[in-house]
Amino acid sequence: MICTSQFTFIHLHKTAGQSLSDALLNCIPGALEVGYHYPFEMLPVSASSLPIIGVVRNPWDWYVSWYAFNNLRGVRNPLFNIVSQGKQLGFKDTITNLINYPDSSETSVLNKSVHKSLLPDRFSDERGSGFTKQCVEKMESNTHGYYTMLVERMFGFDSHQLLLVSFENVVEEFCVTLERLGVVEASAVRTYLGGQALMNTSRHSHYSRYYDQELQELVRTRERRVLERFRYDFEHTSTPQPLINIDAIQRVPKLRGSAANFLKIGDNCETEGLAAALSELPDAVWAESDRQTVFDIHHETQSIPLLTDDMSHTYPVKGPQHPKFEALIHPILTQLASHFGSGGTFIRILFAKLNPRSQIRPHVDSGYSLINCNRVHIPIMTHPGVSFSVGGETLHMAEGQVWEINNAHVHAVRNDSDQARIHLIIDWTPTKTLLKDKKAFRKDLPMFYSQKFRTHGRL
Q1: Residues 64-86: pLDDT tens digits?
Q2: Are residues 170 and 270 in the same domain?
Q3: What is the bridge-based pairing of β-strands 386-390 and 411-415?
Q4: How many domains would you assign to the chain?
């Protein structure tokens, strides 16, 4: 939110708030940014009696913008990963999950539980989505959809201090509101906004192009309060225009598209030889691991890379321990190659050790390479006290079992035993997704799906 001596501007997601905030900070002396996407309940005491300005948007349009922005721009929004099952669902299924997020259905209760696990206990100054665990607890309704609940959470909805303008005419209405409040810098704000394009926009066609009748009616039912208050309706565009595909990125499907969280590939993988070879390794080999320092979420782990691409999604190189384990992992790789089919590359192979009485906290793997691979876990040494959770589903993987997990979905591991857990982790990818040049930790951006960036062309 932006606090001034005359009013406060509260930034609702995907309503040009970044542009308006930027204009206020540049044009009004003493304007102060307080958090990012903070709701009205976080108003400083000094601003508690001042007018609040906010922007609302047609819900059908808002959902399209939210989806396009998060799906195509490499944005790390935990809620998007949850309702899209790790970017595996398309527009209709993802938005259906989001609209229903506040209700008490089994799916929504699970989604909220997983969402809470990723959120902080209190607001901080980081430029995030402005959500805490307590915010999720307040998003409860069997009648209202997510957008209505978000509007109420951000603005208070019925507050006498609230002055709402429409996104559809945002610059004009915003500046007129400033003028009515007697803000002397209103003309400067108008000039500033008129001289530049809106920030953080998402590219898509008119919203009506993305809705079938069922999804259209779901919005009409669940967002009725916002629709009626602001007299929004579903409008068809009168101007012919090509459809911009907001599902354009053809990501590698996880779990063959047949499950959301886990897929068992095999039951009786030979692991005794691997366990024996690992037991012969000195502790110094594990101590060379840097996975726990590169990724804070893995600070309780150590790893031994046999094959690695440095997360660049290029052809991998062999690690120092690869010769020792090459013959032992060959039958496993043969089994997986048969499962996934021809035309693939094993891009990462590593042993991962999780310390006794420790955990890997809930998180989502992100970036081009981790999104565009199939991740396989094979327990080499484990214990019944070890549990693996993906998307809120929890199970114990027994030694020798072969599991693919949806690593783009929220996942976590607990080791409640007194012994270390060791998994063999294998990432397979279609060779045609590999990129030409080596650069670590690329985001999942549309540019990398272009043929000129690929080693072997398009998916």
Answers
A1: 999 999 987 767 788 998 999 98
A2: no
A3: antiparallel
A4: 2
The whole-number pLDDT of residue 458 equals 46
**Residue where the block lists tokens 């721009």:** 73
List, for residues 159-208, the tens digit of each pLDDT value: 788 999 999 999 999 999 999 999 999 999 999 999 887 777 788 999 99
If asked whether residues 183 and 302 sit together in one domain, one would say: no
Structure pTM?
A: 0.89
Please tell me whether residues 224 and 265 are part of one structural domain.
no
318 and 226 assigned to the same domain:
no
Q: Which residues contact 390 (CB under 8 A, 6 or more apart)?
A: 261, 262, 405, 406, 409, 410, 411
Q: What would the pLDDT profile of 6-64 be if each residue is shown by its tens digit?
A: 999 999 999 999 999 999 999 999 999 998 889 999 999 999 899 999 999 999 999 99
24-27 contacts, C-beta under 8 A, 24 or more apart: 24/189, 26/192, 27/185, 27/188, 27/189, 27/192
CATH of the domain at 393: 2.60.120.330
Q: What is the mean pLDDT of residues 95-112?
A: 95
Q: State both tokens at 364.
A: 């989502």
pLDDT above 80 (res 232):
yes
In a domain, 180, yes or no: yes
Parent domain of 189? 2-230
Co-location of 210 and 287 in the same domain: no
Q: What is the mean pLDDT of the chain?
A: 91
Task: Encode the chain in three state secondary structure.
Answer: CEECCCCEECCCCCCCHHHHHHHHHHHCCCCEECCCCCCHHHCCHHHCCCCEEEEECCHHHHHHHHHHHHHHCCCCCHHHHHHCCCCCCCHHHHHHHHHCCCCCCHHHHHHHHHHHHHCCCCCCCCCCCCCCHHHHHHCCCCCCCHHHHHHHHHHCCCCCCEEEEEHHHHHHHHHHHHHHCCCCCHHHHHHHHHCCCCCCCCCCCCHHHHCCHHHHHHHHHHCHHHHHHHCCCCCCCCCCCCCCCCCCCCCCCHHHHCCCCEEEEECCCCCHHHHHHHHCCCHHHHHCCCHHHHCHHHCCEEEEEEEECCCCCCCCEECCCHHHHHHHHHHHHHHHHHHHCCCEEEEEEEEEEECCCEEEEEECCCCHHHHCCEEEEEEEECCCCEEEEECCEEECCCCCCEEEECCCCCEEEEECCCCCEEEEEEEEEEHHHCECCCCCCCCCCHHHHCHHHECCCCC
